[in-house]
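Section 3.1: Structural characterization of target chains.
Under the original work plan, the team committed to producing a structural model for every single-chain target entering the pipeline before any wet-lab resources were allocated. The record below documents one such target. The sequence was received from the expression subgroup and is listed exactly as submitted; it comprises 96 residues.
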Amino acid sequence: MIKEQPNYYAIIPANVRYDETLSPFEKLMYGEITCLTAKDGKCWASNNYFSNLYKKDLSTIRRSITALVTKGYLKRVVNKNVVTNRVESRYLFINM
């Protein structure tokens, strides 16, 4: 498994910072995802990673990521096993 190596700073652009429909935690999640975005543009961190980092329920993490995807700030790509239909990997990409 690839270990995440966060950057020392987060980037939260003005359109995300001033979006009144996002909660402060959703804005923080966006910034954390920018820290964890690798050189290839993918964020490999799992919901469990974020849950442990911020001491939040998995449902809170899922809702926050879904809100950012729905608003178009993130793109989520899920790869499933064709036989079992189970999720094998999930990547998050920053939409700029």
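The CA atoms of residues 26 and 65 lie 7 Å apart.
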